[in-house]
Write a structure and sequence with these properties.
Length: 183
Amino acid sequence: MNHEIGVSNLMFNKASNEQIEFKKYDINVELEEESSNEQKTILKYSLDLTSNPKNAVINISGNTILSGEQSEIEEFLKQEDEKTPEVVSLIYQELFPLMYIISKNMKIPSPAHTISQNNVRSPEEQNGDEKKIEEKSSETQTNDIKEEEKENNPSEIESERMENKNETNTDLDQKPTPENESS
């Protein structure tokens, strides 16, 4: 089987120059069949790599042409037991040298040399993570609002201080003093 991989879009983005401890890239992979016949299949691909923690984003998209026997092509496209299809690994391996050179030039972490060492996720999984982030964000906003309300309400702060002072005084009253011990 023969293959050709073309790049139509290439984007590297670095959020800041701050050095953040890097773990790995989360990869969102999309494949779409554009056309197919007896001898070849043309696929449109998109790889979105986001560093974890988020500081760098790499997006590469284009087309790949797989030529050969239909059974060979189908084998490359097959996905078994949540494993990455071979065609995705093939595309990634072809694009890795390009990603490595540009990421080193931009002073961002390079993706792993094999796709299996990254965290590969489908678009559905990516959307689920975004929902979790939104939920967490709304929780944080709610807590921030409560703290802000406390800061803007001096009587609430004063009542909290009084409660804390009363608790401290009660603790002092219960501790034995030298005068109480001698009686």
